[in-house]
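Homework help board

Subject: predicted structure for assignment chain

Our instructor gave us this sequence and asked us to write out the predicted structure in token form, then describe one feature. I got the tokens but I'm not sure how to describe them. Can anyone check?
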Amino acid sequence: MRPDKRIRIIREPQRGRYDRETIDAILDEALICHLGFEVDGQPYVIPTLHARVGDTVYVHGSAASRMLRELASEVRVCLTVTLVDGLVLARSVFNHSINYRSVVLLGTAQLVPDDEKLEALHALTEQLAPGRWDEARQPTAKELKATWILALPIEEASAKVRSGPPEDDPEDENLPAWAGVVPVHLAAEPSSYDWRRVHEGRLGAP
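My token output:
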């Protein structure tokens, strides 16, 4: 994917990733995205569920949702997801960081027509819990009517990834403070439900 000036990583450019394989993998593993947009000069950032199908990311909500109504009017939107992989503790406070994987996606969302809603809802359900679509009751015509789904094409996107140990300054190497990475991941509590996104307690991609 070509990194034009809107999505090019400026701060720590060596962490930038522009290949679809990396971008898609992060979108697929994440459970929640944040949508940023502006209404009458007031910026909003709203968390919501999402799902990627091919070159499109879907988000959904109530037909009465202010967010969806504004986004359906073809305003520009910024969609972001972040996965935290570890706390990076250096010997100096200044060099503390986190290991993470993130995606920023820019574009204009389009309202999904009624005849495509079922396919999009299937993707959103499977993103949350693979196999759940066939386990639970299918949506009724009334429920479909009450649901709006927006499609955002993956055309302008970049990923940023930090991994590895702390980057201590040479003069700090012999300080007595512990330094290293504390692994962090999203986990699920024990449940009788066979949640197929969970592998050894850790949530991963479907």
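Reply (TA_rk): Your tokens look well-formed. For the description, you could write something like this. Helices lie at 20-29, 66-71, 114-128, 132-135, 141-145. That's the kind of observation they're looking for.
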